[in-house]
Amino acid sequence: xxxxxxxxxxxxxxxxxxxxxxxxxxxxxxxxxxxxxxxxxxxxxxxxxxxxxxxxxxxxxxxxxxxxxxxxxxxxxxxxxxxxxxxxxxxxxxxxxxxxxxxxxxxxxxxxxxxxxxxxxxxxxxxxxxxxxxxxxxxxxxxxxxxxxxxxxxxxxxxxxxxxxxxxxxx
Length: 171
What we know:
Shape: globular
Strand content: under 5%
Strand order of the largest sheet: 1-2
Radius of gyration: 18 Å
Number of helices: 6
Distance between the termini: 34 Å
Structural class: mainly alpha
Number of strands: 2
């Protein structure tokens, strides 16, 4: 978990998931960083099983390129380590905010159709439920997300982030 509590590592993994396999040089261009730093973080991510080599992409014209891909389609966590979880979630929120800001910047420059802009949303709902009810809700949301995954000619990549936490009333 602590490995993923670093913004660049989280962005690298996100880019490999969203944009596909890449070399450290490609990732450096995508993420506006340098390839040495990217290589270092890729090795750490690989050591902990978040990324793997993508030999199907080849080794490049000089036989030296090292291609990487995400090892899993998503990252979930339940470490039992509250401090590591908080660090990871802080980083995750910052990275998700960057992605949302990028969408709104692109939309303001007309890079997304009005239909896509209207379909995108952030919302908040407050409900009362039990721990079991919350778990059922998460399972239903996961099922709906899987059902909505519909690669087709007009489809785009969509980032879906969910949060569900209990909160006690403040007195």
